[in-house]
Amino acid sequence: MSAPKPPNRPSFPARLDQNKPFFAPKLSQTTDVKKQVPRVAMEAAKGFSDSKFFINQDRSTLNHEALRLAMVRKLQHQGIHHEAVLRAMRDTERHRFIDAGWANQSYEDTSLPIGYEQTISKPSVVARMIELLLHDRPTPIGRVLDIGTGCGYQAAVLSRVCTEVYSIERLKALHDKARNLLRPFRLFNLHLLLGDGMVGYAAGAPYSGIIAAAGGTVIPTAWLEQLAVGGRLVAPVDVGGGRQSLVVIDRTAQGLTQQVLELVQFVPLKSGIA
Ligand code: SAH
Asked: Is residue 36 scored above 50 in pLDDT?
């Protein structure tokens, strides 16, 4: 399936072409983002009769775009190499998911409050988990179950590397918030569900991938049952002493295999809806 359409907004010459292969910006191009933006703006404005007006109108768009490119460059430095993941991170406007009070930190590698005592995950963790989820499979991978929609950011990134995403959230207020935030993106392969993700979503099973943004003491059996042969699950799990590790589980024709990876910090996986 082809990549989902970009948001339905007026196009802009500085926008990167989604159909072109992803090429990371050279280090020197994004080292000083503040210096880079006016140059980009000037180049983007070439050919327009009223360039000054145009630059002012789109300065914040350019700022966000430059910051997002710098964020992607950092992700590469941190070891994210999967081209489709880097492209999806580059194309998903994280600032649109961030509450006004935190907007200036939209492209910092930090988790931020999204209300209701929940947080949007750090970009490096989102990219790492999605890279693990895809591993060496061709993209887009098939159907994916995303547990813990939150504000919907990770679901939006996922929708760019999977054919179909079912994203489930147990808090009605956040489910509604994600629906509103995601509407302008017009991601037709992303389905938001209100429910208890601990029981998975059998109607969409089997899944090529299952990814969770909340961690419990065990991996719920429903997730393992709903994982396709050849599928992969990536989730945080409590490992004792108040610590959580990222766990990767693969279902092969022979059965399940598990890897326990680095320590992480996610909100708790809770049962029921609220
Ligand atoms: N991926 C999200 C991160 C949200 S934080 C983002 O990009 O913003 C994790 C979310 O998991 C919280 O919103 C929390 O309410 C939700 N959650 C916790 N337990 C859950 C469960 N059993 N089912 C569905 N969602 C759950």
From this structure: no
Is it the case that residue 30 has pLDDT exceeding 80? Answer: no
Using alpha carbons, list the distances in angstroms from residue 34 to 62, 67, 84, 247, 270: 11, 9, 27, 38, 42
Tens of pLDDT, residue by residue over 41-96, are 333 333 333 334 334 445 677 799 999 999 999 999 999 999 999 999 999 999 99
Both tokens of 50, joined, read: 């009223």
Q: Is 119 in the pocket of ligand 1 (CB under 6 A)?
A: yes
Please provide the CATH number assigned to the domain covering 120-268.
Answer: 3.40.50.150
Q: Which residue is it, tokens 């489910």?
A: 175
Mutate to test the pocket of ligand 1, among 120, 169, 187, 237 (most ligand atoms within 8 A of CB): 169
Give strand pairing partners of 143.
164
Q: Is 267 in the pocket of ligand 1 (CB under 6 A)?
A: yes
User: Considering the entire predicted model, what is its pTM?
Assistant: 0.82
Return the amino acid letter for 147. I
The residue extents of the domains of the chain are: 27-115, 120-268
Task: Answer yes or no: are the C-beta atoms of 207 and 228 closer than 8 Å.
Answer: yes
How far from the centroid of its chain's Cα atoms is residue 187's Cα? 13
Report how far ligand 1's centroid is from the alpha carbon of 167 (Å): 9
Judge whether residue 232 has pLDDT over 50: yes
